[in-house]
Model the fold of this input.
Amino acid sequence: MIDAPNIADELAQSGYTDYVGVPCSHLSPLIATAQSAPRLSYIAAANEGDAIAIGLGAHLGGRKTVILSQNSGLGNMVNPLTSLLRPFQVPMLLMITWRGEPGVPDEPQHEQMGSITPDLLNLLDVSWEFLPNTPCEALKAIRRGCEYVDHEQRVFAFVIRPNTLSGHITLRPSRDCRAPAVNRTWTGTSSERPTRIDAMQELLSQERGDEVYIATTGYTGRELFSLNDRANNLYVVGGMGTAASIGFGLANARRCQPVVVLDGDGSLLMRMGSLAPIGQHGPKNLLHVVFDNECYASTGGQSSSSSVVRFDQCAEAMNYRRVIYVDGKSHMAQAIQEAKIHEGPVLIHLKVDSAVPPKLPRPTRKPFEVKERLIRFLNQSQANQDLLEHKDGADKPN
Ligand SMILES: Cc1ncc(C[n+]2csc(CCOP(=O)(O)OP(=O)(O)O)c2C)c(N)n1
Done:
């Protein structure tokens, strides 16, 4: 067996100090290590697909993330792996425990996934190897895996057999406090709902100028592109429902960078659980805008189930700091202004008309080019901020 703190030390030497995932009992020693060591961090994602999206957001902010998952969670990762990490060319390290290995007695629910795990990783074109269970070999393997991720800028997975990891398991109770949210409701009549592009225009007209916009799949991203294609935009063309987690990963990695998530009702309903880690970690720099047109406009306008959903109340229940509901054109500008000036996480649930401009263009740059452009923007804005802080410090009398 290998001592989990030794694995964490080796990973830290390659720059991996952040862990995100969903537990497997066989990962407990590593999760306990990540939770207790001062220089490490652990985020409990609601599902493994969201963990990948949080890792992508952190990557935008210059951090390296280890994704922890049981092989059952591979099913939850398939969409973000294929339609998010691949088109955006995002490097990432996965540690996946192997339940249901053929020939090893295990529970019936692990049998099928256990038997296809290596083939599934191959099919997904994810390079992988078993984590050896002798310390010296394991540490060498960790170094190899990290080098692969760095050099190839691709995903690499370690498959971990049960009882490979050891260590003290002190489970830490969560001591997060629930902050009472401020809840505001502005209602008009549904006949005066703005279109999403009008609402987006209002949002952009009130910007500071340094915000990053993460726009969800389909027409939302295309509308943002048509309004203003800039380096601070990310069009989440795949991985439907992951925009909030990507925004959270970035906001968490860059605490001074304002991040605005442009979400849709269909997208958020697909991954509602993603609100919980946002509420738990409470990034102050995150504004989550949900444009609710009560349908899947991008695929032809089929109705969604959001006509009965109050996303603001869901976010309040998930510990967002401020939630705002607005229905009607007349209050929109004021509601957006309120959302923008308060500390996050703020969620604004904006009821919009489902009309979409005709012949909406699609982003002309490839997803990875948009991502690289955004990373350059973020690095520049960090450099400007560092310069400003340095100047401020230099201006202060001794
Ligand atoms: C996992 C997944 N399922 C389905 C689709 C097809 N699809 C693309 S955009 C979209 C609708 C998104 O709905 P919403 O967020 O409400 O935005 P709207 O279409 O109304 O602009 C769907 C279903 C997809 N891309 N990925």
In short: DSSP finds 14 helices and 17 strands in the chain.
